[in-house]
Amino acid sequence: MTTTTNRIAFQGEPGAYSHEACRKARPGMEALPCRTFEDVIEAVRSHQADLAMLPVENSTYGRVADIHHLLPESGLHILDEAFVRVRIALMAPPGTRLQDVRHVRAHLVLIPQARGFLTRHGITAAASADSAGAAADLARDRTPGMGVMASELAAEIYGLEVLARDIEDHHHNTTRFLIMGRQPDHSRRSDRMLTTFVFRVRNLPAALYKAMGGFATNGVNMTKLESYMVDGVFTATQFYADVEGHPEDPALQRALEELRYFTSSLDMLGVYPADPLREAQRQTA
């Protein structure tokens, strides 16, 4: 892959968890914040950035809305996956004590994850559109008694003081990101490869059942299979799948050949190495 800008685009404000994912997975690249997921994709397509960092699912809250609709039409290709543990920090302007914090702001999905900590300390919480954005606002306004729950990266960027770390109730909460680029790379870059594709089944009785049978009979592990409507039509269903293996592996090759017989379309989104943390997630599941 030829790097032209050395930028990786993400959705959110600087200090968002997607920004943290960029730093961890591509520490040598400049992170480019974008307003929406569509803007992230367009940044790569228009050569403002070389790579996109897109969250696809969370171990607590499931898949990220709209992402599976965007990926097949993006024109981009999956090059890597990245697992990032969601560590929640409570932060406030320098000089604030933990006992001084009576209210916090955070993204809606973070608040339930730290309910135990908030209850123990008598802190009320209000939802914000973006945790990193809330941190930026607090750094500017310095509202007395107010704190923010966000990543430690947000505290670093906006000059806030971390009053408590790892305040989430469950310490297994992890977000899976996909790193995408303009050009595919199907080379075998690891002993554990993954293949992601989308397909539509033909209008045949039990077509999906028969299409999936090839993976079972060939011993191919399918780690994800999700369906969603296309263009708002109930009869137009597209399936998104992740499987273990490389398309050149004999077993996966046979399974894909059988799948093609029962599908009206089959598009590869990426062939990429499994993140080492995937196995750790499997063991704790």
Automatic annotation (TrEMBL):
Its EC number is 4.2.1.51. GO terms for molecular function: prephenate dehydratase activity. Keywords: Amino-acid biosynthesis, Aromatic amino acid biosynthesis, Lyase, Phenylalanine biosynthesis. Residues 196-273 form the ACT domain. Residues 7-182 form the Prephenate dehydratase domain. Gene3D superfamilies: 3.30.70.260, Periplasmic binding protein-like II (3.40.190.10). Transmembrane segments: none annotated. It holds the Pfam family PDT. Pathway: Amino-acid biosynthesis; L-phenylalanine biosynthesis; phenylpyruvate from prephenate: step 1/1. It catalyses: prephenate + H(+) = 3-phenylpyruvate + CO2 + H2O. This is prephenate dehydratase. The lineage of its organism: Bacteria, Pseudomonadati, Pseudomonadota, Alphaproteobacteria, Rhodobacterales.
